[in-house]
Specification:
Layout (H helix, E strand, L loop, with lengths): L13 H11 L4 H6 L9 E6 L4 H18 L2 E6 L3 H11 L5 E5 H9 L18 H6 L1 E2 L2 E2 L2 E13 H6 L11 H13 L5 E2 L4 H10 L17 H15 L3 E2 L9 H6 L5 E5 L2 H8 L5 E4 L10 E10 L6 H11 L2 H11 L2 E2 L5 H7 L4 H5 L4 E2 L8 H12 L6 H17 L1
Parallel strand pairs: 1-2, 1-3, 7-8, 7-9, 11-13
Antiparallel strand pairs: 3-11, 4-5, 6-9, 6-10, 6-11, 6-12
Helix pairs in contact: 1-4, 3-14, 9-10, 17-18
């Protein structure tokens, strides 16, 4: 399974353009959604998902069928070939599915044009969802949708290579200084310490560990050009220029998990999707997972999540909310976790999950100090420019990278 972020380039452009173009024509989603006549009778819910594979498709279809039979409704689950493109076209064309997966990286685009029903406050026990996930799906002060599941970043360590470098459990880094110290020892043995993804979805974790981030909590103001973020990027630049960390392309790999699996680096920073990738492609690699090292301001990681979106134009909003409640119930989330490896978004089943999957504890613990994606609309080109800057970080100017982001983001948000 490839990490979600590898497909980000394919998730941009067309959809946002279609959505904003529709909203700008004067018949935006808000106006038409108010006129959508609701049906109180049995619903024929259309559900579109972006599936990770057959296991997820079957699990969601089975759960939907169970809900339908017990509620007197029908529910058709369709796995999209390209969720972002198909959903964007359906929303812009006025014929959206009733319920659909919404990735956190696209949420603000949809919410800002009124494509989503803000039903979050109607879900039972909404405070049971992790706060960081609720924040991710809040726009203009409204919780729009229920978090489906999530993942976070942690530090993976190849235990054989760790021992080969003369390191022990006492050397497992819990701070930036300790990460540097371990990296120095690993480099002295002729190995690369850290395979690090060259995107904001990896490097951004260091910003969070130093109390920084790219945007304000409400998504209204860019906040990249700060001393905290500068110190974080300067630290990462030091890892790169000293040869402690290398980007995947420097290690002849498509992503950090592949470099780690091939033994080209002793450590990497990835999410819990790396489990399946290593099991499938590199089953002999022995490794352990630990929390990311804390920065000067404490622990920090990034979260990746999706929610169950409900179309503002759906004729079956009440039934759709009941469907989402069933899909996000604790026992159903545990069933999904067993079926296709996701982490439940409800805190109430955390202990149950970690008992079943003890190796995932560092990932799920990260929910307490995780930062979600940039939560502002119209940011595709701004983020692509940031990525280009980060890819050249070893020879670049961290201050310029951050200042450029703020300038570009202000222009996008004001345009």
């Amino acid at each position: 399974m490839t990490p979600r972020t590898l497909t980000r380039a394919a998730l941009a452009g067309l959809t946002a353009a279609a959505l904003f173009g529709t909203a700008a024509c004067g018949s935006g989603f808000d106006d038409s959604a108010k006129d959508t006549k609701q049906s109180s009778g049995p619903a024929n819910l259309q559900i579109m998902i972006g599936s990770s594979g057959d296991a997820e498709t079957k699990a969601v279809q089975d759960a939907a069928a169970k809900w339908a039979s017990s509620s007197g409704n029908t529910a058709t689950v369709t796995p999209a070939q390209d969720l972002t493109q198909q959903l964007g076209q359906a929303l812009a064309g006025g014929t959206p599915p009733d319920v659909f997966y919404v990735d956190a990286s696209r949420f603000a685009d949809y919410a800002s044009v009124g494509a989503l029903e803000p039903y979050g406050d109607k879900v039972s026990n909404k405070d049971d969802f992790y706060e960081s996930l609720r924040n991710t799906f809040t726009y203009d002060g409204k919780l729009y949708c229920a978090p489906k599941d999530f993942s976070t970043l942690a530090l993976e360590i190849n235990t054989d290579l760790w021992a080969k470098a003369g390191l022990t459990d006492a050397d497992v880094p819990t701070t930036w200084d300790q990460l540097t110290a371990a990296s120095q020892k690993i480099k002295a043995k002729g190995m690369v310490a850290l395979a690090l993804g060259d995107t904001r979805d990896r490097i951004g974790a260091f910003m969070v560990q130093n109390g920084g981030w790219l945007m304000s909590k409400d998504g209204k103001q860019p906040t990249a050009d700060t001393p905290e973020n500068l110190q974080a990027l300067e630290y990462v630049k030091g890892l790169l220029t000293n040869g402690y960390a290398k980007f995947p392309k420097q290690l002849d790999a498509g992503w950090s998990g592949e470099a780690f699996g091939k033994g080209k680096a002793v450590m990497t920073i990835e999410g819990n999707w790396i489990k399946g990738a290593l099991k499938n492609d590199f089953p002999n690699v022995k490794y352990k997972v630990v929390p990311l090292p804390a920065g000067p301001k404490g622990q920090g990681t990034l979260s990746f999540t999706q929610c169950w979106g409900i179309a503002a134009k759906s004729k079956f909003k009440d039934q759709a909310i009941k469907f989402v409640e069933a899909m996000t119930a604790g026992d159903q989330q545990i069933a999904f976790a067993n079926a296709f490896g996701v982490m439940p978004s409800r805190q109430s089943v955390r202990d149950q999950y970690t008992s079943a999957f003890p190796a995932d504890k560092p990932f799920i613990d990260g929910a307490a100090y995780a930062q979600g994606p940039v939560n502002a609309p119209k940011m595709d080109s701004v983020l692509r420019d940031l990525e280009a800057g980060l890819q050249g970080l070893a020879n670049g100017d961290p201050k310029s990278i951050l200042a450029n982001f703020d300038k570009n983001a202000k222009a996008a948000l004001g345009g």
